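Example complex used in Figure S2.
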Amino acid sequence: MSKVITFYFDFMSPYAYLASVEVERMAARLKCAVTWRPMLLSVSVVKVMGLKGVAETPLKREYVAHDVARFARYLDIPFNRATTRPMMPLPAARAFVWLEQIDRAMARDFAQHVFHAQWADAQDMSTPAALAGLAQSLGIEPDALLAGIADDDVKQQLKRRVDESIAAGVFGAPTFVIDDQMFWGVDRLPMVERWLQTGGW
Amino acid sequence: MSKVITFYFDFMSPYAYLASVEVERMAARLKCAVTWRPMLLSVSVVKVMGLKGVAETPLKREYVAHDVARFARYLDIPFNRATTRPMMPLPAARAFVWLEQIDRAMARDFAQHVFHAQWADAQDMSTPAALAGLAQSLGIEPDALLAGIADDDVKQQLKRRVDESIAAGVFGAPTFVIDDQMFWGVDRLPMVERWLQTGGW
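Predicted assembly (402 residues):
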């Protein structure tokens, strides 16, 4: 099987974190490739759809707080949520697109560590300083990463990626695309797996 | 196994239709009981959460139109969407609570037929007249059903049910509750099944 799964993520989404682990497990089983693509819920949900974020939404906010931890246990993925403010994903998303231009595998590795630090180690990865510290531990030059985050071309490149995600119809994170089929939500991975195995229905 | 699954539904949701079929299949496998409970997305989503309905939401609207049909094929459930206006669920929800006071099994049977007529036979079940016609085919006196839909006590009983659903934290349809655990979405039924089989995690 030589299919490619395009995986749209936002670092601020704990469901995207769970998906980031689970989609790579699935891809390894099926010998598929995963293309990681940043999107921003602040653009799709708030600007394009005209909705509120989960943290501002009664009932859903309480459900999600309980559900994410339960889902992590279901998938056997470590999960510890920071009790501080919501994660601000923009610096990490910019760091990702900067790294991607240098080395895609390194960008993915970095993204996996950002997700893990934020959602399994309960660190706040909102700031360039926190990301630079993480980069250093991965052998990435922290000053180069800080310059990348601040670079205008990198900002434009992220904006292009986000515009592309909206043009593709992506509104939530995680979203998975195979050929012309889009699936929203980590709970859809079993369906994605069946699609990959059977060629669709 | 003697567990009870509380199944919250809104007739206007095609996902609730899929769930209405699938939850009974699952309950039969596991020898569980299903308690059907009406809720109204117009109350939870619009009034309480302050969001818009799917039909008013860019990106999600287009996704759902494609996804529901794909999901129906995945579950092997007949699906034909009426191309007319959105379903208005209030008369059918009132008919359900009226019937429930007489005979719970009959109310469930009626609800299943309403769902099927709306979402598999592409009929518009928004009106008392359409519901009365369906009732007659099931051996329910149509004039009694019409009187039930218009009855003030029935309207108050539905209002109580909807208030109870909000108090329970239910915001979406379908929602499943087992003991103190709430699961939102037809895509969560495999997780609900594992919870029932294992006693939770």
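The radius of gyration of chain B is 16 Å. Chain B is about 55% helix and 10% strand.
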